[in-house]
Amino acid sequence: MKPERAVERYLKERKPEVSESTHYNHACTLNAFLEFCEEEGLDNICEVDGFHIHDFKIFRREVGGINEVTLYKNLCTLRVFLKWCRSMELVDSSVVENMILPDLEDDARDTMLDAERADQILNYLEKFEYATLRHTLFALLWDTGFRIGTARAIDVEDYHPEEQYVEIRHRPEQDTPLKNGTRAEREVNLHPWVCDILDDYLQIHRNDVTDEYGREPLFSSSRGRTVRSNLRMHINRVTRPCHTTGECPHGRDQSECEAAQDYDHASKCPTSVSPHPIRRGAITHWLNEGHSKELLSDRMNVSAKTLEKHYDARSESEKRELRRREFGME
Protein backbone atom coordinates (compact mmCIF):
# COMPACT_ATOMS: atom_id res chain seq x y z
CA MET A 1 0.00 0.00 0.00
CA LYS A 2 1.27 3.46 -0.84
CA PRO A 3 2.07 5.63 2.22
CA GLU A 4 -0.46 8.25 1.09
CA ARG A 5 -3.25 5.68 1.02
CA ALA A 6 -2.28 4.28 4.42
CA VAL A 7 -2.27 7.75 6.00
CA GLU A 8 -5.59 8.60 4.37
CA ARG A 9 -7.24 5.46 5.74
CA TYR A 10 -5.72 5.93 9.19
CA LEU A 11 -6.90 9.55 9.50
CA LYS A 12 -10.36 8.65 8.26
CA GLU A 13 -10.67 5.88 10.86
CA ARG A 14 -9.40 8.06 13.74
CA LYS A 15 -11.48 11.16 12.95
CA PRO A 16 -14.58 10.19 14.99
CA GLU A 17 -12.42 8.80 17.82
CA VAL A 18 -10.27 11.82 18.70
CA SER A 19 -10.70 15.55 19.20
CA GLU A 20 -10.43 17.87 16.21
CA SER A 21 -7.17 19.33 17.49
CA THR A 22 -5.63 15.86 17.93
CA HIS A 23 -6.75 14.85 14.44
CA TYR A 24 -5.26 18.06 13.04
CA ASN A 25 -1.94 17.44 14.81
CA HIS A 26 -1.78 13.85 13.55
CA ALA A 27 -2.51 15.03 10.01
CA CYS A 28 0.29 17.64 10.17
CA THR A 29 2.84 15.13 11.45
CA LEU A 30 1.88 12.46 8.94
CA ASN A 31 1.99 14.97 6.09
CA ALA A 32 5.61 15.61 7.08
CA PHE A 33 6.15 11.84 7.06
CA LEU A 34 4.69 11.64 3.54
CA GLU A 35 7.03 14.42 2.44
CA PHE A 36 9.89 12.35 3.83
CA CYS A 37 8.65 9.23 2.02
CA GLU A 38 8.54 11.10 -1.27
CA GLU A 39 12.05 12.42 -0.80
CA GLU A 40 13.34 8.95 0.09
CA GLY A 41 11.48 7.25 -2.74
CA LEU A 42 9.55 5.08 -0.29
CA ASP A 43 6.39 4.17 -2.18
CA ASN A 44 5.27 1.14 -0.16
CA ILE A 45 4.40 1.50 3.53
CA CYS A 46 5.19 -2.21 3.99
CA GLU A 47 8.88 -1.45 3.43
CA VAL A 48 9.24 0.88 6.43
CA ASP A 49 12.03 -0.22 8.73
CA GLY A 50 14.14 1.12 11.59
CA PHE A 51 16.49 2.95 9.25
CA HIS A 52 13.59 4.91 7.78
CA ILE A 53 12.48 5.96 11.27
CA HIS A 54 16.04 7.03 12.12
CA ASP A 55 16.28 9.03 8.89
CA PHE A 56 12.87 10.61 9.56
CA LYS A 57 14.21 11.92 12.89
CA ILE A 58 17.12 13.55 11.07
CA PHE A 59 14.77 14.86 8.37
CA ARG A 60 12.52 16.56 10.94
CA ARG A 61 15.48 18.06 12.81
CA GLU A 62 17.37 19.36 9.79
CA VAL A 63 14.64 20.11 7.25
CA GLY A 64 11.74 20.77 9.61
CA GLY A 65 13.88 22.72 12.07
CA ILE A 66 11.80 21.49 15.01
CA ASN A 67 12.95 21.27 18.62
CA GLU A 68 13.33 18.03 20.58
CA VAL A 69 9.95 18.29 22.31
CA THR A 70 8.14 18.64 18.98
CA LEU A 71 10.22 15.81 17.56
CA TYR A 72 9.19 13.63 20.48
CA LYS A 73 5.51 14.37 19.78
CA ASN A 74 6.03 13.69 16.05
CA LEU A 75 7.54 10.30 16.81
CA CYS A 76 4.73 9.44 19.22
CA THR A 77 2.22 10.18 16.46
CA LEU A 78 4.22 8.17 13.95
CA ARG A 79 4.33 5.24 16.39
CA VAL A 80 0.53 5.32 16.81
CA PHE A 81 0.17 5.33 13.02
CA LEU A 82 2.60 2.43 12.62
CA LYS A 83 0.74 0.48 15.30
CA TRP A 84 -2.38 0.91 13.18
CA CYS A 85 -0.39 -0.27 10.14
CA ARG A 86 0.71 -3.30 12.14
CA SER A 87 -2.92 -4.07 13.02
CA MET A 88 -3.64 -3.99 9.26
CA GLU A 89 -0.68 -6.38 8.73
CA LEU A 90 1.15 -3.74 6.70
CA VAL A 91 4.34 -3.46 8.77
CA ASP A 92 6.33 -5.87 10.89
CA SER A 93 5.75 -5.82 14.65
CA SER A 94 9.45 -5.23 15.33
CA VAL A 95 9.30 -1.84 13.57
CA VAL A 96 6.95 -0.52 16.24
CA GLU A 97 8.43 -2.40 19.19
CA ASN A 98 11.97 -1.22 18.47
CA MET A 99 11.15 2.47 18.09
CA ILE A 100 13.26 4.56 20.48
CA LEU A 101 11.82 7.83 21.70
CA PRO A 102 14.04 10.53 23.22
CA ASP A 103 13.91 10.94 27.00
CA LEU A 104 12.17 14.24 27.60
CA GLU A 105 11.70 14.10 31.38
CA ASP A 106 13.94 17.16 31.77
CA ASP A 107 13.09 18.83 28.45
CA ALA A 108 9.35 18.80 29.23
CA ARG A 109 9.97 20.98 32.26
CA ASP A 110 12.55 23.20 30.57
CA THR A 111 10.36 24.02 27.59
CA MET A 112 8.45 26.93 29.01
CA LEU A 113 8.46 30.70 28.85
CA ASP A 114 9.54 32.07 32.21
CA ALA A 115 8.15 35.22 33.83
CA GLU A 116 11.25 37.29 33.11
CA ARG A 117 11.07 36.63 29.36
CA ALA A 118 7.32 37.18 29.36
CA ASP A 119 7.77 40.60 30.99
CA GLN A 120 10.48 41.45 28.47
CA ILE A 121 8.19 40.53 25.56
CA LEU A 122 5.22 42.39 27.05
CA ASN A 123 7.32 45.52 27.57
CA TYR A 124 8.45 45.38 23.95
CA LEU A 125 4.90 44.88 22.66
CA GLU A 126 3.58 47.66 24.90
CA LYS A 127 6.08 50.06 23.35
CA PHE A 128 6.27 49.01 19.71
CA GLU A 129 3.18 46.91 18.86
CA TYR A 130 0.57 48.15 21.30
CA ALA A 131 -2.89 46.53 21.06
CA THR A 132 -2.08 44.68 17.84
CA LEU A 133 -3.39 41.16 17.41
CA ARG A 134 0.03 39.81 18.41
CA HIS A 135 0.17 41.93 21.57
CA THR A 136 -3.38 41.05 22.54
CA LEU A 137 -2.90 37.33 21.88
CA PHE A 138 0.32 37.13 23.88
CA ALA A 139 -1.13 39.11 26.81
CA LEU A 140 -4.24 36.92 26.93
CA LEU A 141 -2.24 33.68 26.76
CA TRP A 142 0.14 34.79 29.50
CA ASP A 143 -2.64 35.97 31.82
CA THR A 144 -4.92 32.96 31.37
CA GLY A 145 -2.72 30.05 30.29
CA PHE A 146 -5.24 29.31 27.52
CA ARG A 147 -4.55 26.70 24.88
CA ILE A 148 -4.26 28.25 21.43
CA GLY A 149 -7.50 26.54 20.34
CA THR A 150 -9.29 28.15 23.27
CA ALA A 151 -8.06 31.63 22.33
CA ARG A 152 -9.11 31.06 18.72
CA ALA A 153 -12.63 30.03 19.82
CA ILE A 154 -13.41 33.31 21.61
CA ASP A 155 -15.92 35.71 20.03
CA VAL A 156 -16.16 39.43 20.66
CA GLU A 157 -19.39 38.90 22.57
CA ASP A 158 -17.68 36.37 24.85
CA TYR A 159 -15.59 39.16 26.29
CA HIS A 160 -17.26 41.18 29.07
CA PRO A 161 -15.24 44.37 29.59
CA GLU A 162 -17.31 45.75 32.46
CA GLU A 163 -17.04 42.59 34.57
CA GLN A 164 -13.55 41.88 33.17
CA TYR A 165 -13.92 38.24 32.26
CA VAL A 166 -14.21 36.06 29.17
CA GLU A 167 -16.58 33.16 28.50
CA ILE A 168 -15.19 29.96 27.04
CA ARG A 169 -17.65 27.88 25.01
CA HIS A 170 -17.40 24.58 23.12
CA ARG A 171 -18.91 25.00 19.64
CA PRO A 172 -17.58 22.13 17.48
CA GLU A 173 -20.35 22.45 14.89
CA GLN A 174 -19.07 25.96 14.13
CA ASP A 175 -15.35 25.14 13.85
CA THR A 176 -14.37 26.15 17.40
CA PRO A 177 -14.13 22.97 19.48
CA LEU A 178 -12.38 22.88 22.84
CA LYS A 179 -9.91 20.12 23.64
CA ASN A 180 -11.94 18.82 26.60
CA GLY A 181 -15.34 19.51 25.08
CA THR A 182 -18.09 20.94 27.27
CA ARG A 183 -15.99 20.18 30.36
CA ALA A 184 -13.72 23.03 29.23
CA GLU A 185 -16.53 25.59 29.27
CA ARG A 186 -16.01 28.21 31.96
CA GLU A 187 -15.79 31.92 32.79
CA VAL A 188 -12.27 33.25 33.30
CA ASN A 189 -11.43 36.50 35.08
CA LEU A 190 -8.90 38.82 33.46
CA HIS A 191 -6.50 41.30 35.01
CA PRO A 192 -7.34 44.96 34.33
CA TRP A 193 -4.15 45.49 32.30
CA VAL A 194 -5.21 42.72 29.90
CA CYS A 195 -8.67 44.27 29.57
CA ASP A 196 -7.08 47.62 28.69
CA ILE A 197 -5.21 45.95 25.82
CA LEU A 198 -8.30 44.07 24.69
CA ASP A 199 -10.43 47.23 24.72
CA ASP A 200 -7.92 49.13 22.59
CA TYR A 201 -7.43 46.19 20.24
CA LEU A 202 -11.18 45.99 19.61
CA GLN A 203 -11.37 49.72 18.99
CA ILE A 204 -8.26 50.15 16.84
CA HIS A 205 -6.80 46.99 15.31
CA ARG A 206 -9.37 44.20 15.09
CA ASN A 207 -10.64 43.36 11.60
CA ASP A 208 -14.36 44.04 11.76
CA VAL A 209 -15.53 40.84 10.08
CA THR A 210 -17.70 37.81 10.77
CA ASP A 211 -16.85 34.18 10.14
CA GLU A 212 -18.80 31.78 7.94
CA TYR A 213 -21.26 31.16 10.79
CA GLY A 214 -22.06 34.83 11.30
CA ARG A 215 -20.01 35.06 14.51
CA GLU A 216 -17.56 37.85 15.30
CA PRO A 217 -14.23 36.20 16.19
CA LEU A 218 -12.07 38.03 18.70
CA PHE A 219 -8.94 37.19 16.73
CA SER A 220 -9.86 37.90 13.15
CA SER A 221 -8.19 38.31 9.80
CA SER A 222 -9.52 39.96 6.67
CA ARG A 223 -11.10 36.61 5.78
CA GLY A 224 -12.73 35.79 9.10
CA ARG A 225 -11.54 33.77 12.09
CA THR A 226 -7.77 33.46 12.26
CA VAL A 227 -6.51 29.93 11.74
CA ARG A 228 -4.44 28.13 14.39
CA SER A 229 -1.26 28.10 12.33
CA ASN A 230 -1.38 31.87 11.97
CA LEU A 231 -1.79 32.37 15.70
CA ARG A 232 1.09 29.97 16.38
CA MET A 233 3.24 31.88 13.91
CA HIS A 234 2.63 35.14 15.79
CA ILE A 235 3.89 33.49 18.98
CA ASN A 236 6.92 31.96 17.26
CA ARG A 237 7.86 35.36 15.88
CA VAL A 238 7.49 37.43 19.01
CA THR A 239 9.33 34.97 21.25
CA ARG A 240 12.54 35.16 19.20
CA PRO A 241 15.02 37.16 21.35
CA CYS A 242 16.25 39.09 18.31
CA HIS A 243 12.72 40.36 17.73
CA THR A 244 12.41 41.97 21.15
CA THR A 245 16.03 42.74 22.09
CA GLY A 246 17.84 42.97 18.77
CA GLU A 247 20.41 40.47 20.07
CA CYS A 248 20.95 36.77 19.44
CA PRO A 249 21.88 34.62 22.46
CA HIS A 250 23.12 31.91 20.08
CA GLY A 251 25.80 34.03 18.44
CA ARG A 252 24.20 33.88 15.02
CA ASP A 253 24.68 36.52 12.34
CA GLN A 254 21.12 37.81 12.08
CA SER A 255 21.59 38.89 8.46
CA GLU A 256 22.25 35.25 7.60
CA CYS A 257 19.85 33.61 10.09
CA GLU A 258 16.80 32.12 8.39
CA ALA A 259 14.75 32.36 11.59
CA ALA A 260 15.54 36.07 11.93
CA GLN A 261 15.04 37.03 8.29
CA ASP A 262 12.05 34.93 7.30
CA TYR A 263 8.91 35.18 9.45
CA ASP A 264 7.71 31.81 8.11
CA HIS A 265 10.78 30.15 9.64
CA ALA A 266 10.67 31.88 13.02
CA SER A 267 10.14 28.52 14.75
CA LYS A 268 13.68 27.50 13.71
CA CYS A 269 15.08 29.88 16.32
CA PRO A 270 16.24 27.64 19.20
CA THR A 271 14.79 30.07 21.76
CA SER A 272 11.43 30.81 20.16
CA VAL A 273 8.49 28.91 21.63
CA SER A 274 5.07 27.74 20.56
CA PRO A 275 1.93 28.64 22.56
CA HIS A 276 2.09 25.61 24.86
CA PRO A 277 5.30 26.66 26.69
CA ILE A 278 3.53 29.95 27.41
CA ARG A 279 0.74 27.95 29.06
CA ARG A 280 3.27 26.02 31.12
CA GLY A 281 5.11 29.20 32.08
CA ALA A 282 1.89 31.00 33.00
CA ILE A 283 0.76 28.15 35.27
CA THR A 284 4.18 28.01 36.94
CA HIS A 285 4.10 31.78 37.45
CA TRP A 286 0.66 31.59 39.10
CA LEU A 287 1.94 28.82 41.37
CA ASN A 288 4.97 30.90 42.31
CA GLU A 289 2.58 33.70 43.24
CA GLY A 290 1.09 31.38 45.84
CA HIS A 291 -2.21 30.46 44.15
CA SER A 292 -3.66 27.04 44.96
CA LYS A 293 -3.54 24.22 42.47
CA GLU A 294 -7.25 23.58 42.96
CA LEU A 295 -8.22 27.09 41.81
CA LEU A 296 -5.70 27.01 38.97
CA SER A 297 -7.09 23.66 37.87
CA ASP A 298 -10.46 25.30 37.14
CA ARG A 299 -8.96 28.44 35.59
CA MET A 300 -6.59 26.59 33.27
CA ASN A 301 -8.90 23.60 32.55
CA VAL A 302 -6.39 20.99 33.67
CA SER A 303 -6.73 18.39 36.40
CA ALA A 304 -4.70 18.89 39.58
CA LYS A 305 -2.88 15.62 38.85
CA THR A 306 -1.94 16.66 35.32
CA LEU A 307 -0.98 20.11 36.54
CA GLU A 308 1.36 18.57 39.09
CA LYS A 309 2.93 16.20 36.57
CA HIS A 310 3.25 18.32 33.43
CA TYR A 311 2.86 22.01 34.28
CA ASP A 312 4.43 22.66 37.66
CA ALA A 313 7.97 23.55 36.55
CA ARG A 314 9.03 25.15 39.84
CA SER A 315 12.34 24.14 41.33
CA GLU A 316 12.53 22.79 44.87
CA SER A 317 14.12 26.09 45.93
CA GLU A 318 11.19 28.06 44.50
CA LYS A 319 8.73 25.83 46.36
CA ARG A 320 10.71 26.28 49.59
CA GLU A 321 10.75 30.08 49.22
CA LEU A 322 7.00 30.10 48.63
CA ARG A 323 6.42 28.04 51.78
CA ARG A 324 8.62 30.46 53.69
CA ARG A 325 6.45 33.40 52.59
CA GLU A 326 3.17 31.58 53.21
CA PHE A 327 4.22 30.54 56.70
CA GLY A 328 5.40 34.05 57.57
CA MET A 329 8.99 32.99 58.16
CA GLU A 330 10.60 35.94 56.40
UniProtKB/TrEMBL annotation:
CDD domains (UniProt xref): DNA_BRE_C
Region (Disordered): 310-330
Residues covered by the Core-binding (CB) domain: 1-86
Domain of life: Archaea
InterPro entries: CB, DNA_brk_join_enz, Integrase-like_cat_sf, Integrase_catalytic, Integrase_recombinase_N, Tyrosine_recombinase_XerCD
Domain (Tyr recombinase): residue spans on this chain: 108-324
GO terms assigned for molecular function: DNA binding
Protein name per its UniProtKB record: Site-specific recombinase XerD
Natural source organism: Halorubrum trapanicum
